[in-house]
Design goal:
Elements (H helix, E strand, L loop, with lengths): L2 E5 L2 E4 L4 E8 L6 E8 L6 E6 L6 E3 L7 E6 L4 E6 L8 E9 L11 E2 L3 E6 L1
Parallel strand pairs: 2-11
Antiparallel strand pairs: 1-3, 3-8, 4-5, 4-9, 5-6, 7-8, 9-10, 9-11
């Protein structure tokens, strides 16, 4: 059973930066595609960024493209999300998710989820 634990959330002013980290255990991490999703108050959970297991290719939602960077360390079993130029609309609960095999966009394709870490961006 894969377990995911997020950390790094907090409160930051608009224009600031935060780095989220997700630690994975219980599975063959190097063979898992990893994703970051987020859920703002009153809204549905949405995709933010993903990284393939096989070639490290990255994927981003249009709303975060150019501001967020996803990376992974297969030796440490971690995946990070560097968030720069944060905006109030980035305020959300951020979830780490994992799936075995190739990248897929839809969150239903990810069977493993962390509990989330809160990011609040003040204006």
């Amino acid at each position: 059973q894969v377990q995911l634990v997020e950390s790094g959330g907090g409160v930051v002013q608009a224009g600031g930066s935060l780095r989220l980290s997700c630690a994975a255990s219980g599975g063959a991490f190097s063979t898992y595609t990893m994703g970051w999703f987020r859920q703002a108050p009153g809204k549905e959970r949405e995709f933010a960024a993903g990284i393939s297991w096989s070639n490290g290719r990255t994927y981003y939602a249009e709303s975060v493209q150019g501001r967020f960077t996803i990376s992974r360390d297969n030796a440490e079993n971690t995946v990070d999300l560097q968030m720069n130029s944060l905006k109030p609309e980035d305020t959300a609960l951020y979830f780490c998710a994992a799936r075995a095999g190739p990248y897929r966009l839809g969150q239903s394709a990810y069977p493993y989820w962390g509990q989330g870490t809160q990011v609040t961006v003040s204006s």
